[in-house]
Design brief:
By secondary structure, the chain is of the alpha+beta class. It is built from five helices and 22 strands. Among the domains are: 42-54 and 303-371, conserved putative lor/sdh protein from methanococcus maripaludis s2 fold, CATH 2.40.420; 57-66 and 213-301, Elongation Factor Tu (Ef-tu), domain 3 (Beta Barrel); 103-179. The protein has helices at 2-27, 104-141, 153-178, 224-230, 235-238; strands at residues 42-43, 45-47, 50-65, 69-72, 77-82, 91-92, 97-101, 181-183, 188-193, 200-201, 206-212, 215-222, 242-247, 250-259, 270-277, 292-309, 318-322, 328-332, 335-338, 342-345, 354-356, 370-371. Strand 19 and strand 20 form a beta hairpin. It is elongated, with a radius of gyration of 47 Å.
Length: 376
């Protein structure tokens, strides 16, 4: 009996479970099959147009002085005055006094030379009077042509030579006095002051370093590809090309002047030198050496080109185009130039083609999309 119960209980439990399952299946909800609906991605696009386009090449360069000069003493003596205009950054006009040396000796020499000129002039006048008198006497009492010694021609020539020598000494004394003053040879700014008041200097002693502000230079490094976009590799043909220099909202007009004769060994680039008219350092928009500016160089003219946002490019020469059925296709194009904002396409697209602007996380060739701006 006990063994019979051990067998009956599991069988009963299995029967109850099967009955409950049948009941649940009979009374439970029926499963329905739903159709999967494909959600087309919403994308932005644009219609491209073939147009003429002026290529512009961008390059960054540093403003530099076209030339620098060292102000030196031209005579010896004590440095009595050194202008504040020689302090670094100070500006000056042409002819401004930059330094003054002790001129005591030079003034004494000038006074001595002036007295020597006066004496020589008086001696010449006296000799001329004596020569005139001797000539009159000979004409009255003598016969024939008067000898040169009688009319005092040698003495007169010597007096004239003495006056000429005295005038030369006077000119030298005046020059020596003028050299005790050092004046600016041009309008410019100071880079460095190299002497101090009270210092004894000799001819050639450096007093400061200056540069002219009339013309400044900006060196713009260019690649071989940039030269191709400019339409030439001849440095002479680049001369005179317009350049737009920009620092934020401030803009200066410049032009290419020349190119370096060799490639920069550090960057392996060619440097084009643009010249720009300097402005007064007192103006808020003045250029200063050391400023870093963005230069835009006028390149060659394209008769047919298509401009698209740089973000539309997948690679250097690939993008996605949308056909009339709103299906996406990946195509290759000829990329002429890309400045990071606008890409210039030469071929591979037709006028009126629609290109994809929105990046797709998943792309399948020929997939359908929904256009956000189809009216464009």
């Amino acid at each position: 009996m006990k063994r019979f119960l051990q067998f009956l209980i599991p069988v009963a439990l299995i029967a109850v479970g099967l009955g409950a399952k049948s009941l649940f299946v009979a009374t439970g909800p029926e499963a329905t099959i739903q159709e999967v609906v494909y959600d087309k991605p919403l994308v932005e696009s644009m219609v491209v147009q073939v147009q003429e386009h002026q290529l512009n090449i961008a390059a960054w360069g540093e403003v530099q002085a076209a030339s620098t000069s060292t102000v030196v003493a031209r005579s010896s003596g004590e440095l009595l005055q050194l202008s504040q205009k020689l302090l670094p950054g100070a500006s000056f006009a042409k002819g401004d006094l930059l330094a003054r040396l002790d001129d005591t000796d030079a003034r004494d020499n000038l006074a001595l030379a002036e007295s020597q000129v006066a004496q020589a002039r008086a001696a010449l006048e006296l000799e001329q009077a004596q020569a005139d008198a001797a000539k009159e006497d000979w004409e009255e009492f003598g016969q024939g042509e008067a000898p040169a010694v009688v009319v005092r021609e040698p003495q007169l020539a010597a007096a004239r030579a003495s006056l000429a020598a005295a005038n030369a000494q006077l000119a030298m004394a005046e020059t020596q006095l003028s050299r005790t003053e050092v004046r600016a040879p041009f309008a410019g700014r100071s880079l460095e002051r190299m002497a101090e008041t009270g210092q004894w200097v000799a001819p050639g002693t450096p007093l400061g370093r200056i540069y002219p502000t009339a013309t400044l230079e900006v060196r713009l490094p260019l690649t071989r590809r940039d030269l191709d976009l400019l339409g030439t590799t001849d440095a002479d043909s680049l001369s005179g090309r317009k350049v737009l220099l920009q620092d934020g909202e401030r803009i200066w007009q410049a032009q290419l002047n020349r190119m370096e004769a060799s490639v920069d060994p550090g960057t392996r680039l060619l440097e084009a030198i643009a010249t720009v008219a300097g402005e007064s350092s007192n103006l808020p928009g003045a250029l200063t050496p050391g400023m870093f500016l963005r230069g835009t160089i006028e390149g060659r003219q394209l008769e047919q080109a298509i401009l698209i946002p740089s973000t539309a490019l997948l690679d250097r020469n690939q993008l996605r185009m949308i056909d009339g059925g709103n299906r996406v296709h990946q195509v290759e194009v000829e990329l002429i130039h890309d400045d990071g904002v606008t890409a210039v396409i030469g071929s591979g697209l037709e006028d009126g083609s629609r290109i994809l602007l929105t990046p797709l996380a998943l792309f399948v060739e020929g997939m359908e999309v929904t256009l956000v701006n189809a009216e464009d």
